[in-house]
Predict the structure.
Amino acid sequence: MHPNLTTLFDKLSLFSNLTPAEREELLETSRLQDFKKGTPIFHHGTPVSSFYIIADGAVRLYRETPEGKEITLTIAILGDMLGDHELFENKPTYQAHAVAAEDCLLLTYNSNWIKKKVQEHSSLTLNMLAAISKKGSRSTIDREQLVTMKTPQRIGCFLLHLCDVFNLNPKSFVLPYSKATIASKLGMEPESFSRALGKLKDIGVTVQGNNVSIADSSTLERFVCRSCSTAEDCKTCHIYQINR
Amino acid sequence: MHPNLTTLFDKLSLFSNLTPAEREELLETSRLQDFKKGTPIFHHGTPVSSFYIIADGAVRLYRETPEGKEITLTIAILGDMLGDHELFENKPTYQAHAVAAEDCLLLTYNSNWIKKKVQEHSSLTLNMLAAISKKGSRSTIDREQLVTMKTPQRIGCFLLHLCDVFNLNPKSFVLPYSKATIASKLGMEPESFSRALGKLKDIGVTVQGNNVSIADSSTLERFVCRSCSTAEDCKTCHIYQINR
DNA sequence: CGGTCCCTTGATAAACATCAAATGCAGTGG
DNA sequence: CCACTGCATTTGATGTTTATCAAGGGACCG
């Protein structure tokens, strides 16, 4: 049932370009852990002990305001890390709740051990810096989109991104998470999400249940990416691309 | 005019806990550069050459959407880095515009040189990871606040944060940037900023020109932090604090 | 004194949250 | 197979918030 660890390692950019010895050491120390959908992985405020890398499935990270409103920070997927902020900013406790949004498979490590390895191995150092920096860039973009994009555009961007990341056929694919989860990730209410989907019909996006069909990706891109300042460097966006 | 480099280094967490030799090497390679208010430091799309650390003043980072809307990513101040994302994510060009929001003093380094040093020196490795991770956490919080907080609350949070960072007396201080700049940083229009300041009068925040007076910080905190999921771990917020 | 820049104020419209209720759908047990 | 229940989603009605457009101060500077 568990995939071959070696194959898995090849897919993780965090572990790319390691020396055989480094790779071997990490392979030996890796433990795989299963989490069923809905299971908590750690809680906000709990002492930090483990560092995780997602091998399969998805994890939702969220926090709660004193007023009781729940806010989804991100949905982490294959290759994403959990517990990295806490580890490198020396936080004694987890800074968010983590719950399996789908059935999950997680690589787990002792926090302090992985921190030591990052210090020791210079290739791992740069991989980790790239990974953490990328995470930060992503949340900067998310923040920006809340300011510049309207609800239907944010959904459109999410859908295009989805196809890109999971290598789905835009003409017909299935939403990997519940609509409420997606709405929360996009910082909107489920009602607004539902209504915004309606507005996307004009752009050629049909949704029935969890089945999505994007008639023409570039039409959707034209609608979405015109309001995004990163369009030129976004690998999901093809129409404004200048680099590559 | 330029402050003593040694004194400056003591204030930079990125350079803390270095061995005397490492510190010496960095000191020798540091160059100080002046930028007058309004001067561009680098442009979005320009090839990456330098890595900067702010020694004094403030730098506004922003991007533009294809539609022509300008979006402020952040205002960087003492100790903050510029060009780090580009460096560690191997971007060939700068990912944003950087312009001096106030008269600035910047430590500058060759990008590739600093990257090599981070690889070589394990103390610098962890400092850099902490710094970049913190930056990411900050933008996650900014994103969250766009969702959970109303305009006056975001301004209140900004003001409290300001007092904390610059060690200002809440009873009476001067805004370090123009109102338009602050509005943009907070993701709102100048008009909304102006109106929201009015609403803060009820909470005891008086603004005349650039002079701000917060009658009672804890009253303002009660108004602001109840909508923030990080209040418990936020060093600016005292009323919900559990850690320390 | 006229001009520019920055900010404020006013009026209006769009977008979104909220509250409430209806619908649909999956699983359960009769 | 069918009613029944619980949960997720949709739809409707309404109010709040904020962007937008337009015009009005007020300070500073030539």
